[in-house]
Amino acid sequence: MNDQNDKITTASCLCGAVRFNIRGDLRPVINCHCSQCRRTSGHFGAFSGAPKNALTFTEERGLKWFQSSQQARRGFCSECGSSLFYDRKNAAHMAIAAGSLDGITHLVTKSHIFTDDKGDYYELSDDLPRHGAYPG
Length: 136
What we know:
Layout: E1 8-12, E2 19-23, E3 29-32, H1 35-41, E4 45-51, E5 55-59, E6 63-66, E7 72-77, E8 83-88, E9 93-97, E10 109-113
């Protein structure tokens, strides 16, 4: 029997000062086009996610948190600058930067959010669902 909780995905920042494991399945990727994601990533944020209690840090010497709004904080590596997490206040799940995940993930992108805030320097050319703000 193969239990989904037996699955472990490893992830890290660019320099390795933040490393973590995620137990269980990751949610599909959501591309966030809000101004904060654009500023922290240089373009748009591509985030998967998992329950907060599914994350285990194996190295966190570089992990820093920035309170980016009243509703959320962002986790990043203070040594290499990698954007790693988006943590909504009182949420059970943590958004995890898809680019931090090691190896082949088999994840798919399912939608775009905050498209009303999208930069004017690029077009969305796929047929994925689009949400002008945060859905729900």
